[in-house]
Design goal:
heteropentamer; A alpha/beta; B mainly alpha; C mainly alpha; A: alpha/beta; globular; C: mainly alpha; two-stranded antiparallel sheet; about 70% helix; binds protoporphyrin IX containing FE; binds adenosine-5'-triphosphate; binds magnesium ion
């Protein structure tokens, strides 16, 4: 479902990764590993289309990326003055998919905080909201950048559940530094250099 | 998808962006206030400048015309680019790029800016006329010029804001690259306002209004496509 | 080759001094400034249009229906061409302004008097300046390329308007001293016409040559960049299964 | 600690903040090129608005005076408040509060703003006079007014930034506060510039300069204490 | 060294924590635990003086807080256009303590990246730089909010080392969701509700 052909990304005059060939097919869970600064997030952003590759190309399943692709990254900010619920409603309207506000928020345990503006959320709550936004349209491809960071026990279990579901629908790619999280993958890609 | 439902989808997306802008604006109050402060203080400055003068003395109308236009120009530069700059400053740009389509984003923000700008025009016009006591001989021309003038400013400045938003010194850069683009409608804006203030050297207020409208339509027409082109850079 | 060219240029210059003075000017003998004043805006326009086209080409392939240009290396090439063209265009813009200022000193008696032509062209220069300010503001080459190309597309119509249309608007014609129909109106006759055309031809050849050089230089820069780019271990990361999942 | 080493410590801290501001603003050649294009086009706008008028005709000096002031006002509102607001917008406020002392922060930023503003004044004055060809009858008064005027604008706007920086609706608050604060010196600034341009209705340029200086000193004197008061709220 | 007397913090009309009594003495390592949104970061910020308590008071060791206190939090941003080294130099100048740039950067493994502007740092590198800033003046009190989040193996070990050292000098308070990190504490405070 996700194919990278000779993918390379250069920042300034330094290649973060190059000649990267990979194929992730439905039902697979890929973990992208590597020390800090090895390019996990960069690769994930490139796959998500947030960064343009310096060379090579990325193939995603047909269809509108807004609905076929879910991405949640650490350095992706939320709208400080929009409430949790408003985020989901906006996202639903923009991607023309069902907002499912109550269902999703109950699931990640943010229903009580639905009216809290994002700037008042705790780090873990922010991570949960981003997860919601990523899975809202039941995407075929789910890209998670360190989903477990700053999540508590129950949050981590939640991620496992979601991972299980996701592979029934499509594939999952996780960039992580967490030895526990690493275990939920069926495949690994090590960018360590 | 049938065309009607297609249009409905577009409408919803644009509305979603628009709603977002409105909510953020009124909860976090950022853009407009600066514009208002500026226009207020400027107009008072001008009123001071024309202080104990009767502004209907010949060629003061012309000056008034240019002053009004300058105020609108600067106010727009202070206010309009923010809608795009803020996205990058607060780091929500990525989220937007994931969820939305460029045309929806552009139109949502443009509509918001249009409303902002027209309100500003109204404010400036009322205050200016009130404080300087200048006589408006042709209210219709005035209205037309402010309306189309505001729109053309919105078209150009919003786009420039979008283009500058990913750069290091966004705020200043946005101003720098939009001023020259909005400079030449100035000629129309000013001449239109002169006509409205019944200046003697007035040259065709309607042509001015037409010129401004054309400019507005053009910039608003091209804008979204250019934005769509740089959308994911 | 180059020498032939040099000879031609000098010949043309000498010729330009042999032509009779132009009586309709304030300082007839100084009407010759025109020979140098005219080719500049023409070159400027040519390169501006080229730059605009390359900027467009940076985004879309010129096919029907239009489809986006996705190849990164292609894009970098078009960006380079656009920059080269626009840099040269900027040079000619400045030359136009310079010769124009000299000219107006000679014929209108002042370096600058807010003649509509001067104003409009000054704005055109500013837009050009803004383009390069924008380029300077981005560190990432791809973003630099994309956003400056976008700005160029937005600015093209205004530029053309400012340089050609605005000075010919009726209410502007009324107040401007600047001639507008010398060429179109066919008021340029005899030797003047020939000299102008010759110089125009020579200047265009020259600038074409400079443009090619600029692009070559740019290509070399890109290659160097690729060479001394570090960090790529060349090792190809591959996806490896860690265990066969029970459920599949 | 002995007082001399104490002062050295303060100097280092202020310098550190100042250096930070400079680095963040002028990474690479960005700031410069932008600034030039920016101010140039602003002036041209104004000059264009006064299009084909000889600015020494009576009245027009007054208008020029107010125009110059408007430009300065515009520039100051666009650039100055950012120095404080940005800290909160980009979320570095906490870091600053952990590392620095309020007075050092305030002075570091003010010095940066002062330099910025004075350079701007210089540029604006030179360009404006060059392009409009207005005659400066009293260069000294002009210099004095620009100097003290720039300072007072910095004082006022920075103060507002300081006051508003912690509020949720920063910009709005900053705006609301700045209106009166900015309007106040305006009157002096304009009359001072009129005198400089040799207007007939000019009313004591030196008083203006003195007033502005007093205002600048006052606001810059109070500023740090107010800022220190809101520092860790 | 760190004493909280009847400490309470209210946001709007909701008490995050109240009547909190605690005393952390030299040589102790306190872990603040609790599910997402339970108030760990809020408490830490209140101790660091970044938030003013609604009631009660915080007692810190005498001396200038800039030098006696080190804090590193998740939602504390760095200056996007300052390089790594410049951050440390600035901090050194502002706190009038030795910058120790080379020593510290070598320690956390950022020496190679000393000239990289903060906005180009990876999440883990950012965490490391913040850690540097926190320990720069050898503070008596070190407050770390989820230091391990988005750090790789070696980064986590680094935190253990630093914790060991810190207790020789003073005390350490860590707010964490990470079951592993939790182990480095000698004492625990559970805000779970
Ligand atoms: C700073 C002052 C000036 C500038 C910026 C300027 C700019 C230009 C430009 C852009 C063109 C080509 C575009 C067009 O044809 O409309 C042009 C053409 C021309 N200029 Fe100027 N010019 C200036 C001063 C003058 C002066 C003082 C004279 C002589 C009195 C002059 C004589 C001409 C003539 C004869 C043409 C031929 C184009 C035509 O008439 O169709 N220019 N100038
Ligand atoms: N915009 C940028 N410009 C230049 N260099 C960058 C940019 N973004 C990231 N880098 C560099 O690319 C490298 C990889 O960054 P990335 O965020 O992908 O690392 P990572 O694997 O996610 O690390 P972590 O585990 O800490 O998240 C880093 O060395 C970083 O300095
Ligand atoms: N500025 C604020 N205004 C109002 N409520 C706030 C504010 N900041 C935080 N809160 C609320 O206080 C609660 C605690 O937030 P805090 O960040 O301390 O949680 P936390 O324990 O750090 O959670 P996490 O483990 O996710 O980091 C949250 O419910 C949050 O919504
Ligand atoms: Mg990462
Ligand atoms: Mg927390």
């Amino acid at each position: 479902m996700v194919v990278a052909e000779g993918l390379g990304k250069r920042f300034g005059n330094r290649w973060i990764f190059r000649r990267l060939e990979m194929e992730v097919s439905a039902g697979q869970r890929l973990a992208i590993l590597g020390p800090n600064g090895s390019g996990k997030s960069t690769l994930l952003k490139t796959l998500a289309g947030l960064l343009s590759p310096t060379e090579g190309k990325v193939r995603l399943p047909e269809g509108d990326a807004r609905r076929t692709l879910g991405y949640s990254g650490l350095d992706m900010a939320l709208y400080p003055y929009l409430s949790v619920a408003e985020h989901l409603e906006m996202s639903g309207a923009l991607r023309s998919c069902a907002a499912r506000t109550e269902e999703l928020l109950n699931r990640v345990g943010l229903w009580m905080a639905r009216d809290v503006p994002a700037r008042q959320l705790s780090s873990g709550m922010r991570a949960r909201l981003k997860l919601c936004l990523a899975i809202q349209p039941d995407p075929l491809v789910l890209l998670l950048d360190e989903p477990g960071a700053s999540m508590d026990e129950n949050g981590r279990n939640l991620i496992w559940e979601i991972a299980e579901e996701q592979v029934r629908r499509g594939c999952l790619i996780v960039a992580t530094n967490d030895p526990l999280e690493r275990r939920l993958a069926t495949h690994e890609l090590d960018l360590g250099n | 998808m049938s065309s009607t439902s297609e249009t409905r989808v577009w409408r919803d997306e644009v509305l979603a962006i628009f709603k977002k802008e409105v909510l953020s604006e009124f909860r976090g109050k950022t853009g407009l206030s600066t514009g208002v402060v500026f226009s207020l203080s400027t107009i008072v400055t001008v009123a001071l400048a024309l202080f104990n003068k009767n502004p209907n003395k010949m060629d003061l109308q012309d000056v008034c015309a240019s002053l009004v236009w300058i105020i609108l120009l600067f106010a727009s530069l202070l206010t309009l680019p923010r809608s795009f700059l803020v996205e990058e400053e607060q780091g929500t740009g990525d989220l937007l790029r994931l969820l939305a389509r460029p045309h929806a984003v552009f139109w949502g923000k443009v509509i918001f800016n249009l409303i902002q700008m027209w309100l500003l025009c109204l404010l400036v016009a009322v205050l200016f006329i009130g404080l300087t006591g200048i006589v408006v001989t042709e209210p219709l021309v005035l209205a037309a010029c402010l309306f189309s003038g505001g729109a053309s400013l919105v078209g150009a400045v919003t786009l420039c804001g979008a283009i500058a938003s990913r750069a290091a010194n966004r705020a200043a850069l946005a101003g720098a690259i939009s001023i020259p683009l909005v400079l030449f409608p100035t000629q129309w804006g000013v001449s239109g306002l002169r006509e409205a203030f019944g200046s003697v050297v007035a040259t065709g207020g309607n042509t001015a209004a037409i010129g401004l409208t054309a400019y507005a339509l053009l910039s608003l027409g091209i804008g979204p496509w250019i934005y769509a082109a740089v959308w994911k850079q | 080759m180059k020498y032939v060219f040099a000879v031609l240029v000098s010949a043309a210059i000498i010729w330009s001094f042999l032509v009779p003075d132009a009586p309709m000017f304030q300082r007839p003998e100084l009407a010759r400034i025109f020979f140098w004043h005219f080719p500049c805006p023409m070159m400027l326009t040519a390169f501006m249009c080229l730059g605009a086209f390359f900027s467009l080409r940076y985004f879309v392939k010129i096919t029907l229906p239009l489809e986006p240009e996705t190849n990164p290396t292609e894009r970098r090439l078009w960006d380079l061409r656009a920059t080269a063209a626009l840099e040269l265009g900027f040079l000619y813009a400045i030359l136009t302004m310079a010769t124009g200022i000299v000219f107006s000193k000679a014929q209108w008696g002042a370096l600058w008097q807010w003649d509509p032509r001067q104003t409009s062209f000054l704005i055109a220069l500013l837009i050009y300046g803004a383009y390069f300010a924008l380029r300077a503001a981005f560190s990432d080459p791809d973003q630099k390329a994309a956003y400056s190309a976008a700005y160029m597309l937005a600015a093209t119509l205004p530029l053309i308007f400012l340089i050609f249309v605005f000075p010919r608007l009726p209410q502007v014609l009324a107040v401007s001293f600047h001639p507008t129909d010398t060429i179109m109106g066919g008021n340029l006759k005899g030797q003047y016409l020939y000299v102008t055309l010759t110089l125009l031809a020579l200047v265009s050849v020259l600038s074409g040559w400079v443009y090619r050089l600029r692009v070559k230089a740019g290509l070399l820069e890109i290659d160097n960049e690729l060479e001394d780019a570090s960090g790529a271990t060349g090792a190809i990361p591959v996806v490896r299964p860690v265990r066969v999942p029970a459920e599949d």
